[in-house]
Write a structure and sequence with these properties.
With about 300 residues, this protein is α/β, with parallel strands linked by helices. Strand 5 and strand 6 form a beta hairpin. The N terminus is likely disordered.
């Protein structure tokens, strides 16, 4: 999905929708718990902070890789929920925005009154390797034949291409990593507790050239969540909340590009800014998905 320029229809605003109760269940490097446990802990915190009872949640959106073989419907049985609106969004780092925009429409249209959006994963000693081995047909057929599985090999190709095309150096990517760590340290539940220097970044061991250790995402266990509800309901509950000004969602953009250096935002960013009523000069904060620093720079 994306902008509706083809039909000429203007997208409706998200007026009346509130986003509240951001929750993090602090991450750990490894866990013997199942993903269900982490997601349940997140849901419990949402209920505790909001003052809602479990049966007042009539919408649920779930993002998890390690919940498998269960999906969102299986989780409702584990947690004793009976939602009238349910979504399963195993989209990795993009899941939070997808969950938000879909839940916002559900509340706006009356399909749900309160939607709990939760995302969480566990990390056993061997779970990341097993996840990669069965991640997708593309991973099995197109990545493993190169001799290495997982996202690092694929992002190494993209990063090398970006460096050749635009003249970027490892120091350029390193500054992103250093800034990311510096900003994260201001958040008490952050998993890493000490700063990263540019020298540490540059001298770290290689993983898949030109990517080194601190270019890569560290698997861990944890959970995050938030509630989507009407502004009126949030005010009645005396919950601080944010409003949604604009969102976009686009899948498989530029599918014929030989190297994936563009993504859906290149198609839909004008629509996103138009929805919000703001433009690039108005932005003073940017948060990007965790993977693919060459894509961030682009």
């Amino acid at each position: 999905m994306g902008s509706d320029h083809i039909s000429g229809r203007r997208r409706r605003s998200y007026e009346g929708v509130a986003v509240a109760v951001p929750v993090t269940v602090p991450y750990v490097r490894y866990s013997i718990r199942a993903a269900h446990w982490w997601l349940a802990g997140c849901l419990a915190e949402l209920l505790k902070i909001s003052g809602l009872k479990k049966d007042e949640l009539d919408g649920l959106s779930v993002s998890s890789f390690t919940l498998a073989p269960d999906t969102a419907i299986g989780l409702t049985q584990h947690l004793g929920l009976s939602p009238r609106w349910l979504d399963h969004v195993p989209f990795g780092g993009a899941s939070g925005i997808v969950q938000l925009r879909r839940a916002a429409r559900a509340v706006q249209c009356g399909d749900a009154d309160v939607v709990a959006c939760v995302a969480g994963d566990t990390n056993h000693v061997d779970s990341f390797r097993l996840t990669l081995a069965n991640f997708s047909q593309f991973a099995r057929d197109a990545v493993y034949p190169y001799g290495a599985g997982g996202p690092n090999a694929s992002f190494a190709f993209l990063t090398a291409y970006y460096m050749r095309t635009y003249g970027a150096k490892r120091e350029d990517f390193g500054r992103l990593c250093v800034a990311q760590r510096t900003n994260a340290l201001r958040y008490p539940p952050a998993l890493f507790k000490k700063p990263l220097t540019l020298e540490e970044y540059l001298t770290a061991r290689a993983i898949a050239e030109p990517l080194h250790l601190f270019d890569c995402v560290m698997p861990c266990a944890g959970a995050d969540g938030f509630l989507v509800l009407s502004e009126e309901r949030a005010q009645r509950l005396q919950l601080p909340y944010a409003r949604v000004l604009g969102t976009i969602e686009r899948h498989n953009a530029f599918a014929t590009d030989p190297v994936q250096m563009r993504a859906g935002w290149a198609l839909d960013r004008a629509d996103l800014y138009e929805q919000a009523g703001f433009g690039p000069p108005d932005m003073d904060f940017v948060s990007t998905m965790k993977s693919g620093k060459s894509l961030r720079l682009s």
